[in-house]
Write a structure and sequence with these properties.
homodimer; alpha/beta; Rossmann fold
């Protein structure tokens, strides 16, 4: 029913739990394409090359920028993050839906290129919870924590740039909401107008030639 | 997060399976309000007063019309169908979501009064399947079948008046799609703008007063 894949962008403030939710999406919707970002930041404990990220040097990343190989990229807290363009384009042209998990700067860039994408803003249930989560990572200095928490609170301002907001209270519930949003968008009349107009023509033909 | 309930209208051509799907929604989403229509048509086998419909005489129904007690009403194949207004208004004002299962004429009336409602068009997987379903009811004469089938095919034209289309191939899948649409709408930024703007103000306050 869908002519082309749906581009779903999962974004939101730092510490909302984008990575955790995205990882939990995979078993819930294995038929989707999951874009893997490139980054120059150091791997956190347990992160695997080609699964969580493609880890790059600054030189490699800057080469990718020059070669136009990135759908979006940003420098966040001194590290580069970016989305390889080719995977996304291939999946979408084959009619497969693709999920991107990216920060807000990146999402705004993607929105310019894919205004028909589905933009989901993941938020923590409260600022208190956000504080706990950022500290829980154990990878923050006092300085970097203050920077990250302050930004996260300010980043809430970007809600209005998005189509949907999902509160990440429980991961499985957030996953269910995102899955719901994807199914709903796939059922939306505005996304399928061409297909339905064909169906209407057939319907009318049948109705006329009924006897 | 929602200030007021969501009005969900499940509609579509005759024979799409609206009644069956609506009945299956109840255990899937017991927290919703399910509006029960009034009708002057004869009960089909197994239909129960106050569960499937409130069965009325033509005199009773016409009295309800005169008293403005109906949100919408229509005469379809010689029978009146209508939605009692009070139940819907009460549920919505209490912040409860309400599902209406109504024909296309009725849905278009509701859309004028509740343009913010969610309008779902349920369709059979094919015209062949539609034919089988209408005949399967066993309540049709040849004449009424031709009338119903011809109308159903023409009714497909109304797709563009709706927000979503759900193909009723398997009932449980149709229910899952409708549930997804409801959850997605509840997460939509446009429906929660007021709430989020409040959240943003708080967020900014916290960010400023962080140290």
């Amino acid at each position: 029913m869908i002519q082309k894949g749906l581009l779903v962008v999962l974004s939101g403030p730092s510490g909302a739990g984008k990575g955790t939710v995205c990882k939990a999406m995979l078993p819930a919707m294995p038929e989707m394409g999951y874009s893997i970002s490139c980054t120059t930041r150091q791997p956190r404990q347990g992160e695997v090359e080609g699964v969580n990220y493609f880890f790059k040097t600054r030189e490699q990343f800057e080469q990718m920028i020059r070669n136009d190989e990135l759908l979006e990229w940003a420098e966040v807290y001194g590290n580069y993050y970016g989305t390889p363009l080719r995977y996304v384009e291939e999946q979408l042209s084959e009619g497969r839906n693709v999920l991107l998990e990216i920060d807000i700067q990146g999402a705004l860039q993607v929105k310019k290129k894919y205004p028909n994408g589905v933009f989901i803003f993941l938020i923590p249930p409260s600022l208190e919870e956000l504080k706990k989560r950022i500290l829980g990572r154990g990878s923050e200095t006092e300085e970097s924590f203050k920077l990250r928490f302050g930004s996260a609170a300010e980043e809430m301002n970007y809600i209005n740039e998005y189509d949907y907001v999902v509160v990440n209270d429980k991961v499985e519930q957030a996953v269910d909401r995102i899955r719901s949003i994807i199914y709903a968008e796939l059922c939306s009349v505005k996304r399928n107008r061409e297909y339905y107009n064909k169906l209407i023509q057939e319907g009318t033909k049948h109705a006329v030639s009924f006897d």
